[in-house]
Write a structure and sequence with these properties.
Strand order of the largest sheet of chain A: 10-9-11-8-12
Shape of chain B: flat
Radius of gyration of chain B: 20 Å
Number of strands of chain B: 0
Distance between the termini of chain B: 50 Å
Number of helices of chain A: 10
Order of helices and strands of chain B: HHHHHHHHHH
Helix content of chain A: 25-40%
Number of strands of chain A: 15
Shape of chain A: elongated
CATH topology of the domain at 18-164 in chain B: MetI-like fold
Distance between the termini of chain A: 69 Å
Order of helices and strands of chain A: HHEEEEHEHEHEEEHEHEHEEHHEE
Largest sheet of chain A: 5 strands, mixed
Oligomer: heterodimer
Strand content of chain B: under 5%
Chain lengths: 331, 214
Amino acid sequence: MTRRQRLWLPAMVLVMAVVAAACGSDDEPTVSGGGGQPTAPTFPAGSTMANIQSKGKLVVGTKFDQPGLGVKNPTNNKLTGFDTDIARLIAVAIFGGTVDDIDSKIEWKEAPTPQRQLLIQNGTVDLIVATYTINDERKTQIDFAGPYFIAGQDIMVKATDTSIKTVTDLNGKKVCSVLDSTPAKRVREKAPQADLIEFASYALCKDELLNGRVAAVSTDNIILLGFVDKDPTTLKLVGNRFSDEPYGIGLEKGDSAFRDFVNNRLEQIYQNGEWAKAFDANLKKYGLATPTPPPVDRYQSTGEVVPAPTVTTAAGGATTTTVAATTSTTP
Amino acid sequence: MGVVLDNLDQFLLGMRDTVVLTVLSFAFASVLGVVTAGFRVSPVPPLRVAGAAYVNIIRNTPLAVLFVLFYFGLVYVGINFARFTMAIVVLSLYTGTFLAETVRAGINSVSRGQGEAARSLGMTFPQVLVIVVLPQAIRTVVQPLGSIFSALIRNSSLATIIFVANLGRTADAVAVETAQVVPSYLGAAVAYLLLTLPTGQAVGWLERKVAVRR
């Protein structure tokens, strides 16, 4: 080996390492690389998956203003958050490719809480991933895949606080929540010795926490995420949930093949680690530890949405009205 | 009405809390009101201006806004009172303005001759006011003072804004707990009437007792 050659090899290695590091650091908090499907899978003709594939877009309803889950960046219009990454991972299973370049195949629609059900029922969106809590009343109107995330009541403290780790640590401390709310009631049940102070809004509670007149604020963690997001240096989440709000993916009622497909995909990303990666990329910074993924609930859909009548013209010109059968009870 | 009977202990506690808030606040407001009325009729311009500024600013701001500003705002300039203390402060300041205007009206109703006669005897202005004018002035405004007291009983329910217990807060809590909204608030209405109606009777009796027989 000449002197020149001896220098050449380490230099090459160094250059490659730098290039690799540069490629690896992506500013967007989306899940990058890994587990992508290079080619699109084929689906049975007429299935929702095949229809989405042929129209070339998955239409997703999500929140545009929920820190950590779905936020639209006003400068580049890019959506970030755990909900949006779950949607990307589902889109990858339909179109192939990777989560990094899948946005060209997704049409994002804002889905504010009161509009979510309607957006599904009138066919505006293919699915909704928007902090959508699964409950029995909603199950009569739409179907849910998942749950893919369990939200719930948590505690917000000052970033410097180390004394509060669980709900029982609230005993003997001043805790703020909203007047006569369910979270307030839950604090009273789980920490009966807490000095519970109730005001009209969480914004007032946050002020009281910042000026030190209360030690903690407690309510649903996604509400608290919003406050921590605005003030990450002085506030933090304890990250120890003490109630369950299962979030599901809202789908049109009765499309059991599509629901099975989404559920299968969720179980797949649970197993290959992409779910955990998406969680960490979006929610770890708020103090939430990576949980074990919630088991998918393949409940029997009751299929009780009132079927729409379809008008067909029979031979001889007589018009008969038949009711479209909804057979969503079969798996 | 079963909701009220089932939660009678809570309603009684709420009545006690409202009475405590009202009596303490009225005591402070009375001092404040009489002093302010004195300021407003005094011959010293800065005192008149100060009295007018206090009355006009506080009286024309909604009580709910005062509660939020005083409790959640003043802490930023280092004034950090406990919630109960702050409720007394806000209710006293607010009620003090109405008392001041009422007492001032009473003072103006005392004939000029009374003050002139007192001054001709060599009394100072404070002496004229305290010894001669106020005793006659207050007798004539007993009925409006009673109205202010009754208003204070009802206004104290806004202390809920800073989470200070009172009868209105009891009704809120019972309504949420039992999901029986109308019966809970009907109970609160009856309880408030139990406090305000006897007050009205007492004021009527007091007015007859102290009336100036001319």
